[in-house]
Structures are given as C-alpha cells and as structure tokens.
Amino acid sequence: MTRWAWFALGWIMVGLGIIGALLPVMPTTIFLILAAGCFGRSSPRFEAWLLNHRWMGPPILRWRENGAIPLKAKIIAITSMAGGFIMLLLAHPPLWVSVVCGLFLSACATFVGTRPS
C-alpha cells in the first residue's frame, strides 16, 4: 500500500473511532489503535498528534506498552456486545445469523476480557 493510502485509512479509522465514542454499540479504541498504526506507516506527525492527544492518546499508549485495556473499558465493551446481541435476538433473525454473531461476539468478549488491565 502507498503512503497516501495508509494516510487516508488512518483518517477513516479516526472518523470511525469518533463515531464509536458517540454510539454505544460501536467500539472506539480499536479504531484509534488502527489509526495510529496507519499513521505510523504514513505520517509520523499525525501519529505523534494522535499519541499525544489528551483523550485519544492514553488508551493507544496503554495498548502499545502492554496490550492493556482498562477495566472500565472492558466492562463497557462486553456489556455493549451483550446488549447488541440481545437487540439482534429481539429482531428474530435466522438461526444461523444468531449463531454466527453469538460466536463472533463471544470470541471478541473473550479477547477483551483476557487482556491485562
């Protein structure tokens, strides 16, 4: 991928991270971590901006240092996943959709829950 493609992808990830901060069922931190990685390949200036940002920087730095997710963020993430799954079930999707989504969300919740705090 070219430098400009990484740069554009970085801004898309920042945008998704901001949307995630506003919507309870969409993650935030993972998009910011991905944005920092994209900027690391395209623009050290924007990577530094993101890492030094007052609100966005600390979770990215915690992740880079030791793969840590704060306990409060774990609780919010896992609760949001469970809530989203319950909302899915209330829509009565086909059984295979429920099973696939349930397995995917269970894997994600397990990953989040097993990271250091």
From TrEMBL:
Keyword Membrane: yes
Superkingdom as given in the UniProt entry: Bacteria
Transmembrane domains' residue ranges: 6-39, 71-89, 95-114
Record key words, sorted: Membrane, Transmembrane, Transmembrane helix
GO cellular component entries: plasma membrane
Entries under PANTHER family matching the protein: INNER MEMBRANE PROTEIN YBAN (PTHR35813:SF1)
Protein name: DUF454 domain-containing protein
Gene source species: Sphingomonas crocodyli
